[in-house]
Design a protein that fits this description.
The protein has 105 residues and is α+β, with helices and mostly antiparallel strands. The chain has 3 helices and 4 strands. Strand 2 and strand 3 form a beta hairpin.
């Protein structure tokens, strides 16, 4: 925790200054939110158009799509939670009947 004081005067005194720092720190802690952070893996998928929407729906449950490229096939670059990677890959393989290419980036 860092509290920065821009005013250089001594009007608060030592006790007042300590209280101001403490109150500011407590206020910041009370208003802070807890954010869960997970280790992720980056994958690239290549699949047919026919399966793309169903696969995107699966991916939304396990991670986020970073990039989509459409040409003769659909290429998706995505982030998936590392602990859910195998489950996600299995679901995508099942959905596409193993007509998908995976590359770990």
């Amino acid at each position: 925790m860092v509290v920065t004081r821009y005013f250089g005067g001594i009007k608060l005194g030592f006790g007042g200054l300590s209280r101001a720092y403490r109150d500011t720190a407590l206020s910041a802690i009370e208003e802070a939110e807890v954010i869960e952070v997970f280790e992720q893996v980056r994958l690239k998928l290549r699949l047919r158009y026919a399966e793309s929407q169903k696969v995107k729906n699966i991916i939304e449950k396990y991670g986020t799509i970073q990039e989509e490229t459409y040409s003769d096939t659909v290429k998706l670059t995505l982030f998936v939670r590392k602990d859910l990677e195998e489950e996600c890959i299995k679901k995508v393989i099942d959905q596409t009947k193993n007509k998908v290419e995976f590359e770990k980036l």
